[in-house]
Amino acid sequence: ASGWTLPGGGLEPGESPDAAACREAREETGYRVALDELLGIHSRVIPARRRLVAGSDLPLQALRIVYRAHVTGGELRNETDGTTDRAEWFPLSEVRRLKRVSLVNIGLRMAGLESFAR
Q1: Most buried among 6, 65, 73, 99, using CB within 10 Å?
Q2: 24: DSSP letter
Q3: Is the model's pLDDT at 1 over the cut of 60?
């Protein structure tokens, strides 16, 4: 794995982005969440040579739709039979020390928490 990231993933056929965000949070962390607001949308092209899927010869256009949400229930647990190695909750004050992917910093900036993205 390349570092800590935010819960997320692709849309199921016919699924809205907000429903997907709630589903992915549940699948990857065990928490049920309610979305508070859309923070922003970030676009990224992943070159074919950097894709994690074996045999991918085309680039991937990724749209990251980032929401602010709050936990409404569930229990923190690791995902089973998925792509997430481990789920853990960190206080915001500890985020700086984590090895994290760029999406975490993007989300922090979208949330107005730039000082934690350094």
Answers
A1: 6
A2: H
A3: no
